[in-house]
Amino acid sequence: MSETAEKFEQWCVVEIMGHKKFAGLVTEQSVGGASFVRVDVPEVIDFDGKTLPAFSKLFGAASIYCLSPCTEETARAFAAQIRSQSFSLYEAPRLPAPPQVPYEDPNDDEDDGEDLDDEDDDGGPW
């Protein structure tokens, strides 16, 4: 008697160790032979009217504290409430370019009035 594994696909609120929460469509995904829980967070408009783009997160089963199955409407409302954002929005801002400093040739001796090729009166180079 063969048993087929049922494919998990459910809207959920997902609580991750470290007190982070995500809400979206939860499925299973295999990457490199390892199984992950995939959360596809939908695009939402938060309470400030700001549109947050959709994104996906993959979690190892050991990092998940709780999965709360719910309706799509509940997951979308919860996603808008918790305002989860994609990692790319947390990247460090680019630093401004350093100010341009005029190049000064260290071998340029025109400013000091001395000629390094001149020999002193004693016949030596210095």
Arithmetic mean pLDDT = 80
> What summary fits the major beta sheet?
5 strands, antiparallel
Kindly provide the radius of gyration, computed on alpha-carbon positions and rounded to a whole number of angstroms.
Answer: 32 Å
Q: What is the global morphology?
A: elongated
CATH topology of the domain at 9-87: SH3 type barrels
CATH architecture of the domain at 9-87: Roll
Query: Got a strand count?
Result: 7
Quaternary structure: single chain
Structural class: mainly beta
* Count of helical regions: 1
What topology, given as strand order, has the largest sheet? 6-3-2-1-7
Low-confidence stretches are: none
How would you describe this protein?
The protein has 1 helix and 7 strands, in the order βββββββα. The protein is mostly beta strands. It has a domain at 9-87: SH3 type barrels. It has a 5-stranded antiparallel beta sheet with strand order 6-3-2-1-7. The chain has a two-stranded antiparallel ribbon with strand order 4-5. A hairpin with a 3-residue loop joins β1 and β2 (20-31). The model has no long low-confidence stretch (mean pLDDT 80).
Describe how the helices and strands are arranged:
Layout: E1 9-16, E2 20-31, E3 34-41, E4 44-45, E5 51-52, E6 55-59, E7 64-69, H1 72-82
Antiparallel strand pairs: 1-2, 1-7, 2-3, 3-6, 4-5
Provide keyphrases for this structure.
SH3 type barrels, single chain, five-stranded antiparallel beta sheet, mainly beta, 7 strands, two-stranded antiparallel sheet, 126 residues
What's this model, at a glance?
The chain has one helix spanning 72-82, and strands at residues 9-16, 20-31, 34-41, 44-45, 51-52, 55-59, 64-69.
